[in-house]
Amino acid sequence: MILHLLYLYLCFALSILGRPTSDSSRACTSATGVCIDQITEPVTGVAFGFAVPQNVSGPGALGNDFVANITVPLPYGFAGLQGGSSAAPSHFHIAALMGGRVLPNASYEWFLIVQFDELSPDGTTAEPVAGPAITISPLSFWHHDHASFVFRCANCDIGGEVADGKVQLGALFSHVRQPFIIGRTNETLTMANATIAPFVMDLQDIVREDFGEMLRGTGLE
Questions:
Q1: Torsion from C-alpha of 7, 148, 54, 169, nearest 10 degrees
Q2: Residue-wise pLDDT tens digits, 13-35
């Protein structure tokens, strides 16, 4: 149901990296005629989609400018609605915590993408608070049992061990609110009450759409 709702809401195509060890799916909507490819990690139920420019620049596996779509079942702390007190407004908490394997059988190197969005007065939409690198698409939405975020990361990179054209990545999903860190760090973050979901993406299988058109279509230009 999560992916079905996602297909109805999103009106753009996100290219998936790879042949993951998790499930992949593709569906087209009659409403928009758009086909979306995603990786769904079966343990957590979290789905990932990525799009990159034709000519990737930057040191990371995706370069330093990419569009990502993450759909996550609530109430993961990774993507949840944080209630405010009477003295402060509620905020929509977006934190995508991902990392790549540094060495075989070694710990992961983690980094965090984070942004706060103020909720609109009627509580139905998230209004982005300006940030240095992350721009949230108006196509993002939250529902009582899941949230879907579409964002552009213009000054960050996804590191990871690349071998034979494949990058080994991992994602940590936690009900516990993690420290807010922007950028990359070698520190090991707490794994308390967390689920770790490693996955493999094949860089050779990227379908590079017109990045400019995608940015315009997602409101991220």
A1: -120
A2: 333 333 334 455 543 333 333 34
Going by CATH, does the domain composed of 2-218 fall within 1.10.10? no
- Nearest Cα residue to 137 out of 17, 37, 217, 32: 217
Q: pTM of whole model > 0.70?
A: no
Give domain limits for the chain: 2-218
Q: Is the peptide bond before 121 cis (omega within 30 degrees of 0)?
A: no
Structure token pair of residue 182: 């922007």
Task: Name every residue whose Cβ is closer than 8 Å to that of residue 219 and which is 6 or more positions away in sequence.
Answer: 137, 138, 139
Longest dimension (CA), the chain: 54
As a whole number of angstroms, the distance between CA 183 and CA 110 comes to 9
Yes or no: say if 169 and 68 are a contact pair by the CB < 8 Å rule. no
